[in-house]
Write a structure and sequence with these properties.
Elements (H helix, E strand, L loop, with lengths): L2 H16 L5 H4 E5 L4 E7 L18 H9 L13 H9 L3 E6 L4 E6 L4 H6 L4 E9 L3 E5 L23 H5 L3 H6 L8 E6 L15 E7 L13 H10 L1 E2 L3 E2 L6 E6 L9 H16 L3 E4 L24 H8 L6 E5 L21 E6 L23 E4 L3 E4 L5 E4 L2 H17 L6 H10 L18 H10 L1
Parallel strand pairs: 7-11, 7-12, 8-11, 12-13, 13-14, 14-15
Antiparallel strand pairs: 1-6, 2-4, 2-5, 3-4, 9-10, 16-17
């Protein structure tokens, strides 16, 4: 979610408060908070740890191990959890652990006393410290009605099987994969996003196989209670109501993972992304989709320069670039900055061995807002395109609406690619990515606008059958 989208969301909330007939003071108030800070702590090693690569079942699920085994991937030092002894030392100093990244060997700590960090910087096992979050000194508290009461679940039954999603599914020839029996069965998709508001009560998700949820922003908050962005993303893939809305992998399984904080735009969200991606890995997710991207933050000192778009500078880009080496196929939205001063893809769309997805309209022309490539080191970005203008999604009321953004092009392609991989389980993530590239309508002349273009997933299927 971009900073612009967050500001619009906040404005809409405030407008809703103002437009009610009750006095504003009766509806909301400001709660004072003790100002807190979060820091990313880089750890030197994983010594003094009880974990071993010889006992991976202690930190990876059986499904994750089976996925690695399928592609001959060995468990290595990156898979080892962060040293619990180091984390305990940080706790003993009075710091709260917000999250950790074993792939990057980092811990994000929270404190209200910034002077504690001077001692942390001097610890023998610490190689660096970066401020990633500044907490507010007050928060807006307002009366919220029961979210379930706004759900209407009205539906329009269309003759077309896919309902309002027909154009976005058929643009990719995903329906041909469905006709061949590949609808996502047995595939596990992790969705990293903001909240999944009302996905638990919208009848269009009654047949969606949601295995679990987790909130890396605030574990005390139910992912279904706030922010609808993730719910709309889920509807692009997992909706399964014939004649109303059918997604691109309607019979897949899902984990819903919140890493995006809609209240601000700060560097810690990249750490949340890393933690969420590693969680999806540990669960055994085959595919992960993330309609998230960062480059500009509320605090200018946190901003990224263009030169960092190399897939190995931003921490979330480094983790995203590792996904394929763990046996995960990762898709990430390219970004919606095509009309803005930045114009380029965001982080981690610059990652290596992933599919960064841009947006086209129903006529296959690119949208003006879709972010542009290339990466800073000259790789083709975006990788592929899908429909991201007037994409059919569910609203929080449970009715079909439309939305714009690479945020929706990405999951639409994610579901289709999941079905493709279902048909070719022996192929590695990189082989699937290469097939998607080769099946794009700009495969012979990839560029910074379309990348390799809109992929014909049935063509990709035929290409993989020949290998």
């Amino acid at each position: 979610m971009t900073n612009k989208m967050k500001k619009l969301f906040t404005l809409l909330v405030l407008c809703a408060v103002v437009l009610t007939g009750t006095a504003q003071s009766d509806l909301y108030s400001y709660k004072k908070l003790e100002k807190a800070y979060r820091y990313r702590v880089y750890l030197k090693d994983k010594k003094n740890s009880p974990y071993s690569v010889k006992r991976p079942a202690e930190f990876l699920s059986q499904r994750a191990l089976e996925r690695r085994g399928r592609y001959g991937i060995k468990v290595d030092k990156h898979d080892l959890p962060v040293s619990p002894n180091y984390l305990q030392v940080l706790r003993d100093r009075g710091l709260k652990i917000h999250n950790v990244s074993k792939w990057q060997n980092t811990a994000v700590v929270e404190t209200t006393d910034t002077t504690l960090m001077d001692a942390v910087r001097q610890m023998a096992f610490v190689t660096g410290v970066v401020k990633v979050w500044v907490g507010p000194d007050s928060v807006l508290v307002y009366e919220q009605p029961d979210r379930r009461k706004k759900v209407k679940n009205t539906r329009e039954d269309l003759v077309e099987y896919y309902g309002s999603a027909a154009d976005q599914v058929k643009m990719l020839n995903c329906h041909l994969l469905h006709d061949a029996g590949f609808r996502g069965q047995g595939m596990l998709i992790g969705i990293l996003d903001g909240g999944f508001n009302n996905a638990d009560v919208i009848t269009g998700f009654n047949r969606a196989n949601i295995l679990g949820t987790r909130n890396f922003v605030d574990p005390t908050i139910d992912v279904y209670s706030e922010n609808s962005h993730g719910m709309m993303v889920l509807s692009c893939i997992g909706a399964n109501t014939e004649g109303n809305l059918v997604g691109t992998a309607p019979e897949a399984q899902f984990y819903l993972i919140q890493t995006e904080d809609g209240r601000s735009e700060q560097l810690v969200e990249e750490d949340n992304y890393c933690a969420g991606l590693e969680y999806a890995d540990s669960l055994g997710c085959d595919v992960v989709t993330a309609s998230l991207g960062y480059y500009k933050f509320d605090y200018p000192e946190m901003n990224h320069p263009y030169s960092a778009l190399d897939g190995k500078t931003a921490i979330n880009s480094r983790s995203a670039s590792m996904a394929a080496s763990r046996g995960i196929l990762l898709l990430n939205s390219a970004g919606n900055e095509g009309n803005d001063q930045w114009k380029k893809i965001g982080f981690p769309a610059d990652a290596k061995d992933i599919l960064a997805v841009g947006a086209v309209k129903s006529d296959s022309l690119n949208t003006d807002f879709s972010s542009l490539g290339y990466s800073a080191d000259g790789r083709v970005k975006p990788d592929a395109m899908a429909m991201g203008a007037s994409a059919a999604v569910y609203s929080t009321r449970g009715t079909v609406t439309t939305a714009d953004g690479t945020s929706f092009a990405c999951p639409i392609l994610c579901g289709a690619v999941t079905c493709l991989w279902q048909a070719h389980r022996d192929k590695t993530p990189v082989e699937i990515i290469n097939a998607v590239h080769r099946a794009g309508h700009y495969a012979d002349r990839p560029n910074e606008v379309f990348g390799y273009g809109i992929p014909d997933l049935w063509k990709a299927h035929q290409l993989l059958l020949k290998k």
